[in-house]
């Protein structure tokens, strides 16, 4: 789709009345739009006061209307040393890494997302996930370009079929912002365009259509919500037309890095293809802003069940101080914490890899201290395509006669009568 037709599609978005006390009208700065008089009032998108100050300073020629346009955000991504250093003072290490050629992943960050960490130092959580460091260039032995062996489970390009009833449809290799620990860094950000060649989608759709065992399709990428409305509707309508596809899921980081993309027009499309679920890649409580709250509210109001996926990252979110407010904040936004992953052994991301024991302690800090709904499942995605293995803190400490011995979240011991299980456990211990 051309930019012109995408722009036309965007301008046809329905009007949404202001509904939130956080909503600020486009006219707050009172500037004329660069496109002349509006014939239709655009939907109201939240602009937090901190963001308004940011774009007034760093994008002085932009308008609120542009700032809240997701296409403007993508067009104005910061991708080079020159662009990024206009906004933040880069450390010598960051400068060297940004200038180095042959990095495994391109650099890109939306102006919106950059605004969340622009005032913070090089070791701040979100900055570490977006701005490369020289540690990326020193991979360790156990790391691989494709740590999960996805290519081996790919019967056609752009599709991974590992579990019998689920398939992963990699609809694009484009993201609006590139995470430095990306598991798919071998493929994302490499192509010139958001849209893959038409035959790639066709092959993937044909494979799903001729494989009746697939009842659940996860549309991911890259980030599928960087595609145009028309492209997203094309994919969803084609999948919904396949009788054995019961559930469609979208995997995306868009509500965190580009919440402006969750327009009323997009939500109207998504609503047409229920049952449709969404897994949102969330990293840190700093991502929970009035803008992301508006995006989540629109999705949840459209009946889309929302779940979160978080990667446990050293120096970013590997502490209860980061993870507890993140999980509670997601719950407040109607996003059910779903998975907490140990960082995959992807090449150049070793400096992000926190020990699994840290993840166990974080789960322990959540369990019992906050609602069970706010406790994600800690998993390791096993190297080489073994799939997800759940890991739990140990609460069942042993047996005592016919009783099971439990240690609760406060470290106190309790007995629970269960002779059959106690006998089984004794048998296992003796074997
Ligand atoms: S949003 Fe997902 S696919 Fe895109 S760079 Fe981040 S981890 Fe990779």
UniProtKB/TrEMBL annotation:
Residues 161-374 form the Radical SAM core domain. It comes from the Bacteria. Keywords: 4Fe-4S, Iron, Iron-sulfur, Isomerase, Metal-binding, Pyridoxal phosphate, S-adenosyl-L-methionine. PROSITE patterns: RADICAL_SAM. Residues 1-14 have a biased composition (Low complexity). The modification N6-(pyridoxal phosphate)lysine is found at residue 388. One of its GO terms (molecular function) is 4 iron, 4 sulfur cluster binding. The keyword Cell inner membrane does not apply. The keyword Transmembrane helix does not apply. Gene3D superfamilies: 6.10.140.1170, Aldolase class I (3.20.20.70). [4Fe-4S] cluster binds at residues 175, 179, 182. Belongs to the radical SAM superfamily. KamA family. This is Lysine 2,3-aminomutase YodO family protein. It comes from Alkalidesulfovibrio alkalitolerans DSM 16529. The lineage of its organism: Bacteria, Pseudomonadati, Thermodesulfobacteriota, Desulfovibrionia, Desulfovibrionales.
């Amino acid at each position: 789709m051309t930019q012109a037709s995408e722009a036309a599609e965007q301008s046809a978005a329905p009007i949404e009345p202001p509904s939130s006390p956080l909503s600020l009208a486009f006219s707050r700065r009172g500037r004329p739009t660069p496109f002349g008089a509006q014939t239709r009032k655009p939907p109201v998108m939240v602009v937090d006061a901190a963001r308004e100050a940011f774009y007034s300073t760093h994008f002085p020629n932009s308008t609120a209307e542009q700032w809240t346009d997701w296409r403007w955000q993508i067009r104005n991504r910061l991708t080079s040393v020159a662009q990024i250093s206009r906004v933040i003072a880069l450390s010598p290490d960051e400068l060297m890494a940004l200038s180095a050629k042959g990095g495994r992943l391109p650099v890109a960050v939306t102006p919106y997302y950059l605004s969340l960490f622009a005032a913070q130092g090089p070791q701040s959580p979100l900055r570490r996930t977006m701005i490369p460091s020289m540690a990326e260039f020193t991979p360790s032995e156990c790391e691989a370009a494709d740590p999960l062996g996805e290519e081996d489970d790919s019967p056609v390009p752009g599709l991974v079929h590992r579990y019998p009833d689920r398939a992963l449809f990699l609809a694009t290799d484009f993201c609006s912002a590139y995470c430095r620990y990306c598991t798919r860094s071998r493929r994302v950000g490499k192509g010139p365009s958001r849209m893959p060649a038409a035959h790639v989608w066709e092959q993937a759709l044909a494979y799903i259509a001729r494989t009746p065992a697939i009842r659940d399709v996860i549309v991911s990428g890259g980030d599928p919500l960087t595609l145009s409305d028309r492209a997203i509707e094309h994919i969803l309508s084609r999948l919904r037309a396949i009788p054995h596809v019961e559930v469609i899921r979208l995997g995306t980081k868009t509500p965190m890095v580009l919440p402006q993309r969750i327009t009323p027009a997009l939500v109207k499309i998504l609503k047409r293809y229920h049952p449709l679920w969404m897994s949102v890649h969330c990293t840190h409580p700093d991502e929970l802003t009035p803008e992301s709250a508006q995006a989540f509210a629109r999705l949840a109001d459209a009946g889309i069940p929302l779940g979160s996926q978080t990667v446990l990252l050293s120096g970013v979110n590997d502490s209860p101080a980061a993870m507890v407010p993140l999980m509670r904040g997601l719950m407040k936004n109607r996003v059910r914490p779903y998975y907490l992953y140990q960082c995959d052994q992807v090449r150049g991301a070793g400096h992000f890899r926190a020990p699994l024991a840290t993840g166990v302690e974080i789960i322990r800090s959540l369990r019992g201290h906050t609602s069970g709904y706010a406790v994600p499942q800690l998993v390791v995605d096993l190297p080489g395509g073994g799939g997800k293995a759940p890991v739990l803190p140990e609460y069942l400490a042993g047996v005592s006669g016919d009783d099971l011995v439990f240690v609760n979240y406060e470290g106190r011991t309790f007995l629970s009568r269960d002779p059959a299980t106690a006998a089984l456990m004794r048998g296992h211990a003796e074997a």
